[in-house]
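> @MW can you paste both from yesterday?
MW: sure, first one:
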Amino acid sequence: MAGETVTQTKWEGKACVELAIPTAQEVWPLMEDFCSLHKWLPYVDTCYQVDGIPGQPGMVRYCASTITSSSNGNKETMTTWAKEKLLMIDPIKRCLSYEVIDNNIGMKFYVAKLIVSPNGDGKNGCKIEWSFVCDPIEGLRYEDFLLNTIETGLQSMAKKMEDVILSTR
């Protein structure tokens, strides 16, 4: 109805990026290293294992970023962080899923899945897909979260992975 505000109970979204040259077989080993996120996402400063067995469901990583902002001439530094638990990893299908289990950024519920798949011919290029379901995040609009975190993050991740792969060929 006109003028009514609709409250969305869950946010769901997906971003995809295609790489023309690196294959899924080349990209997947970079993606499956669950504690290498700081190498690929520009807004993650550190990422390391805090619990579990590397590469196995149940493993928990700690990811953090330091944000510096200015207001009224004063610089403020804040560290945002999240602990994320690997739920599923499948090297055959080249996909993994994880959930945020603790954080200081307002996420109450967040589950994501990353998939690396070959392009049509399977010889050249691949597609990386990042999908998620989460509760709305206080202080953020869905569109801003999707664009600034998921889409921009995935584009940066794909570019960095492509650069690394092409530099070692």
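MW: second:
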Amino acid sequence: MALTQVSSNKCSDGYQKVFEHDSSELKCKMKFAIYLPPKAESSKCPVFYWLSGLTCTEQNFITKAGSQQAASEHGIIIVAPDTSPRGCNIEGEEESWDFGTGAGFYVNATQEPWKTNYRMYSYVTEELPRLINSNFPADPEKMSISGHSMGGHGALICALKNPGKYKAVSAFAPICNPIQCAWGQKAFSGYLGSDKSTWELYDATVLAESYSGPELDILIDQGRDDQFLSSSQLLPDNLIAACSKKKIPVVFRLQQGYDHSYFFIFSFINDHIKHHAKYLNA
């Protein structure tokens, strides 16, 4: 599949690049960012997938999180896709910030008019890894996943729905129980319809309750001053309770004074990359 390089910048002795391609899953042009550490010049490297949150593109993480230095040191490729299809000319896709463009929620939509293009779950778990493994020095056996907010939800469900596929998972301020919060209910109603049993297929708390597979060590950082924590959009306690029932190890760190922004992510991204490196480089 043809890739077009959009940009390339030397960074922490490696290269931060952005590529564009025609997506077969999403039926549109998509961009993704990829950081290639210096180690990638001579050998295959594990891949850390980063899923961003509402309104983001492939740019937010690579320009704000400061992940490149740690990725360079640990020899890890970082791939950051966009958060939704773009330019599909679907009526209503630009109407709100938390549904449609920039808000794909990492599900495969089943409802018109979304179901043809809004297939971010399959894009992230199938099409994108195939593309990365066939075009870059990636070790196909070693991948992990992380994300923020809507992307934290995405990372958790990808790991829980595919036991063994990802060697590690972590999240910053994830939407942990979308079927119980306003963001999730809005998105799932639109993309998945009114049958709430289909919503459960994309809810980390529900998926944790029935998880069976290789042990998954989950790392979650959450800012204590996050306005979306206090407005009950994130609901981490529900996920922690489900994981504790199933004896899924979770390190949950409530970080004093931090909010929902990339300043928070920047502050703890090195810990997350180190967590992933422990499993990816084992």
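> thanks! The beta strands are 3-11, 14-23, 28-36, 45-51, 77-81, 138-147, 169-172, 218-223, 250-255.
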